[in-house]
Description:
By secondary structure, the chain is of the alpha+beta class. It has two domains: 5-116, no CATH class; 175-297, Ubiquitin fusion degradation protein UFD1, N-terminal domain (Barwin-like endoglucanases), CATH 2.40.40. The protein is 50% helix and 20% strand. It is built from six helices and ten strands; from the N terminus they run ααββααββαβββαβββ. The strands form three sheets. It has a six-stranded mixed beta barrel. Strands 1-2 form a two-stranded antiparallel sheet. The protein is elongated. Residues 56-64 and 66-72 have low confidence and may be disordered.
Amino acid sequence: MKLKIEDVVICLALLMSFSTTLLMAIANESWGTHFPSSLIAFFAAVCVAALIYRFLGGSEGSEFRMGVLKVTGSAGILFGATWLLGDRIREESALYRTESEYRPALEAKQAIVTRLTDANVALEDKAQRLEARVAELSAAHSGYTVEQIRRMKADDGFVSTIRRMVANEDEPFRQTLREVPARVTLNDAMTNMNVYRICIDTQETLFRDLETQKDRLRIRRNSGDGDTRVADVVRGGTITPDASVCPTSGPRTFDIQITCADAVTLFPDRIELCAGLKPVYQSGVSTIRGERVTLGALPPR
């Protein structure tokens, strides 16, 4: 069978357009080239048009329209295939190009993250070793300090300072869970010793969120000579806000009431003794109402 020159040209166009389309698509995806999608679509359209024209029965009745432009026959197939394939190839090319462009940046970012992670692990290891060393040095230093204190004499000035801190319950020797300032007064109608009556809002402020019985507290008064007077007392009652002596707003002369026996312990410079439940004040003193003290919430028994 002898081929016509027309058949040879069509076959060459088919093969060359197909191979050119395939090579450009592979080059764009694998080698980072940037052949335009319209050019790839054109060669693909030439391949399709040649295939339809020669081997699939011709192109009779085919046409391509765009606005007022109308192309029929093989030219219509060529333009239509170019237009249709161009959009598809452009989308896929953009996808592959975006991935190929951003992959090196992503790999560089990942390498940086890996290096920072390794550096962080190394720093954490160093921090743990430093903390262990600090703990060792602290333990050794603390042991040395305690041993030095054991060898001190009772009249040493440092020992006297420590003894005063313990007596005054200064930090870190404080035994109370929370402390609030308050004003005190004497209630000579309370018969039991070591009890108190307190305004309910002061009670709530002192014991809020504490895991304790919420009835034991320590009253501390720092006297003018630097000593601290302490009395441990148990709640004998509360005073509601509607009482005139414990208003929630406005002036208030006291927050807590104590017995005469506790008042003598806390205010020996103001009260000489108790005659029954009644106080005998020092000369020139007539009351302790409004005197400032510190209330401390005691832990559970």
